[in-house]
Write a structure and sequence with these properties.
This protein is of the alpha/beta class and 220 residues long. It has 10 helices and 6 strands; from the N terminus they run H-H-H-H-H-E-H-E-H-E-E-H-E-H-H-E.
């Protein structure tokens, strides 16, 4: 298990007005709408989530780094838990067309509006109970997804990741290192149930038996 940062460059490119969501809008109402994970969250007003989540090629660089770092090869299997509209999986298939991909998401809207090329490989379901065989995947990834879970669900999800992989795994979770970063996270987030300091996350990983790689997102 180790810290590897594949995502901070993408994260820091997004412009955020942290205070806008608590001063200009009814933050509680925005969060309630966002947690439906429907059109409002993905393609509605920015106050409810992404403000429009369409393919723009931004995941290409991460896909390239994942392929290089984990040495992915034709015929190997990759699972993306919380795949959304499947953009990262699409980029992986462009690099290695013979890669066997699978995506999982709990948002039916995201799956219905996913990239057409990867739709056949996407499943509806929860990270807490993966409908895949033990040791089936060579790489399991989960980016900015586990924060949707409550603590008792989080341990289940981490154990499920370990169960279905036979190779590596990489997850990205929200964290904070200071009161400023905690405040920014609290102001900005809409769907988080789990967010902890890096030390707490590492403790949770150990308690859950998670042995894969990980990265943190900080709201600086």
């Amino acid at each position: 298990m180790g810290y590897i940062d594949f995502i901070s460059n993408l994260h820091t490119k997004t412009k955020r007005d942290y205070l806008e969501r608590v001063i200009k809008y009814d933050k509680a109402e925005c969060a309630q709408v966002a947690k439906r994970l429907d059109k409002d969250y993905w393609d509605g007003d920015r106050k409810y989530g992404y403000g429009g989540y369409s393919y723009d090629g931004r995941w290409k660089s991460m896909a390239e780094r994942l392929v290089e770092y984990y040495g992915l090869k034709p015929g190997q299997r990759v699972l993306d838990i919380g795949c959304g509209k499947g953009f990262l999986l699409y980029e992986l298939k462009l690099i290695i067309p013979e890669l066997e991909i699978r995506g999982l998401d709990i948002s039916s809207y995201a799956l219905e509006h996913a990239k057409e090329e990867v739709k056949p490989f996407l499943d509806f379901g929860s990270a807490c109970k993966l409908a895949y065989a033990q040791g089936y995947f060579d790489l399991v990834i989960s980016l900015n997804t586990l924060h949707y879970l409550y603590i008792f669900e989080l341990e289940e999800a981490l154990r499920e990741i370990e169960r279905v992989k036979r190779g590596s795994s990489y997850i990205v979770v929200e964290s904070y290192r200071s009161e400023k970063e905690k405040n920014n996270l609290l102001c900005w987030q809409l769907t988080c149930e789990c967010f902890y300091t890096p030390q707490e996350w590492i403790w949770i990983f150990g308690k859950s038996g998670y042995k894969g790689d990980y990265s943190f997102i900080f709201f600086e």
